[in-house]
Amino acid sequence: MSNVSNLSDVNDMSDLSAQLAGVARALLAEDDVQQTLDKAVAMATDVVRGCDHAGVSLVRRSQGIDTRAATHSIVRRGDE
Questions:
Q1: What would the pLDDT profile of 43-60 be if each residue is shown by its tens digit?
Q2: Cβ(56)–Cβ(34) under 8 Å?
């Protein structure tokens, strides 16, 4: 368990817990893997402070990088 230095840290942790619970519920509600990935990257830009774009990429030794979900084309370009 982490040390909490002040009351605002407790509130921040409570807010984070509530946000992550909401993300988990939203992801579980999706019908398939692709919809789940698309929802995850879309929500990442809302939940992660300073995140403008997000993506999920698979790196395979023989096939290179496969960007499975991205919020913007810049993410895909970064994987090229």
A1: 999 888 899 999 999 998
A2: no
50 three-state secondary structure: coil
Angstrom distance (rounded) from CA 80 to CA 22: 32
What backbone phi and psi angles, to 5 degrees, belong to 57? -130, 145
Give the residue ranges of DSSP H helices in 3-69. Answer: 7-28, 33-47
Report the interhelical angle of 7-28 vs 33-47 (nearest 10°): 160
DSSP 14: H
Question: Could you report the per-residue pLDDT of 3-27, keeping only the tens digit for each?
Answer: 444 445 556 777 888 888 999 999 9
